[in-house]
Write a structure and sequence with these properties.
The protein is α/β, with parallel strands linked by helices and 332 residues long. The chain has two domains: 30 residues; 290 residues, TIM Barrel, CATH 3.20.20.40. It is built from ten helices and seven strands. The protein has a seven-stranded parallel sheet. The protein is globular.
Length: 332
C-alpha cells in the first residue's frame, strides 16, 4: 500500500529535521563552532576543582563548607599547567572537561599556563623550556580540536605580555606566544592573549605588545586570535576594565576583550597579592558590549595568589580567603 499524504508529509518533515541536524553539525565543526563569547555565555563548572575538594573536606554547616560549596558550583575557567597536566595526560583532562561541558550545555574554558620563565621568578614561577612548551601546547591544541563542539575558549598565558617589558624578553615572548597560538588555533577555538589590567601598562604600550603577537600569529586565513583578556587574577573594578579594554582595542584593528570578574566585587586596593576584604564579582556571561565580548571567572576564587598577606603557595586552596570572598553571597 502506498504511503498516505499525511505519512509522506511526516517523512518529509522528519527528513528535513535530520538534514538540518547534519547541516548544523557540519557548520559546528567547520568554521567557528559557535558565535564568539558574549553575554549569556556559559562555561563549564567542573566537579574536578579545588573548591569541590575543599567542600568535601570541610565540616558540614561550617563557613568553610558554605564558601567552598558555593564556589564549586560557579562556572570558572580551568587552569592547565605542565606541572599538573603534562603533555601525556593533558589530552585526557580536556576530554573529560569536554564531557562535563556537554552534560551542562556549556563551553570549555581553559587557561594555558606553562610558558618558559613563567612569572619571571615571581610567586607562580616555573614553566617549560621552549621545545617542551611547544609539544605541550600542541597536545592541548589537538585535544581542543577533538572538543570542537564545545566551542573552546582559551586564555593564553596571563601576565606574559604585560610582564615582558619588566622581564626584558619581549621579542622572546612574542615568538613563544605566537608559536603557541599556532599550536592551539582552529576554526572552533577562541583565543585571548594577555592584556594586563587597567592599573598596569598604559593602553598604547599594552596594545603594542598584543599587536606583535597578533601579527606574528596570522596565517593565510587571517587572524588566529580573537583578542585579549584583562584583570586575570586581579581585582580591578569592571567599569575600569571595560574602559581600559576599549582604550587598548582602540589601538588595534577589530580585536575584542574578555574581563575576569571572579574577585573584583569590592574593587582593588592596588595590591594584587591576596588583598584582604575582597568579594566575588559579577557572574560570568553578564557583561559585554561591542568591544568586550563578555566577562568570565578566570582565576578561581579561593585559590591563593602566593605566599603574601598570609596566603599559602600560589594556586593552593585558602579556606579563609574563600570565606571572605563569599561573605555576601553565603550569608543567611
Amino acid at each position: 500500500m502506498p504511503p498516505s499524504r499525511r505519512t509522506l508529509t511526516i517523512l518529509a518533515i522528519t527528513g528535513a529535521v535530520a538534514v538540518a541536524a547534519v547541516v548544523a553539525t557540519v557548520v559546528l565543526l567547520s568554521g567557528q563552532a559557535a558565535d564568539a563569547p558574549a553575554p549569556g555565555t556559559k562555561i563549564v563548572a567542573s566537579e574536578f576543582s579545588k573548591a569541590t575538594d575543599a567542600a568535601a573536606r570541610a565540616a558540614d554547616g561550617s563557613p568553610e563548607h558554605a564558601a567552598a560549596a558555593y564556589l564549586s558550583a560557579q562556572p570558572t575557567a580551568v587552569w592547565l599547567t605542565p606541572e599538573g597536566d603534562p603533555a601525556d595526560v593533558v589530552g585526557e583532562r580536556i576530554a573529560n572537561l569536554a564531557a562535563e561541558a556537554r552534560s551542562q550545555s556549556a563551553r570549555v574554558a581553559v587557561v594555558v599556563y606553562g610558558l618558559p620563565e613563567r612569572d619571571c621568578g615571581g610567586h607562580s614561577a616555573g614553566g617549560l623550556d621552549a621545545d617542551a612548551y611547544l609539544d605541550w601546547t600542541r597536545a592541548i591544541g589537538d585535544a581542543l580540536r577533538e572538543a570542537a563542539d564545545t566551542a573552546p575558549i582559551v586564555i593564553l598565558e596571563p601576565d606574559s605580555l604585560a610582564l615582558a617589558p619588566e622581564c626584558g624578553n619581549v621579542d622572546e615572548r612574542v615568538d613563544q606566544l605566537s608559536a603557541a597560538v599556532g599550536a592551539l588555533a582552529s576554526d572552533s577555538t577562541w583565543i585571548y592573549v594577555d592584556g594586563g589590567h587597567s592599573n598596569w601598562l598604559p593602553p598604547t604600550e599594552m596594545a603594542g605588545l598584543i599587536d606583535q603577537v597578533d601579527r606574528a600569529s596570522r596565517t593565510d586565513g587571517g587572524r588566529s586570535i580573537r583578542g585579549f583578556v584583562t584583570n586575570v587574577s586581579n581585582y580591578e573594578a569592571t567599569g575600569d576594565e571595560t574602559a581600559y579594554a576599549h582604550d587598548v582595542a582602540g589601538h588595534l584593528d577589530g580585536l575584542h576583550a574578555i574581563i575576569d570578574t571572579g574577585r573584583n566585587g569590592a574593587g582593588s586596593t592596588g595590591d594584587w597579592c591576596n588583598p584582604p576584604g575582597r568579594l566575588v564579582g559579577e557572574a560570568g556571561g553578564t557583561v559585554g558590549d561591542d568591544v568586550v565580548d563578555t566577562n568570565l571567572w578566570i582565576k578561581p576564587p579561593g585559590e591563593s595568589d602566593g605566599t603574601c598577606n598570609g596566603g599559602p603557595a600560589a594556586g593552593h586552596w585558602w579556606p579563609a580567603a574563600a570565606v571572605e570572598l563569599t561573605r555576601d553571597v553565603t550569608a543567611d
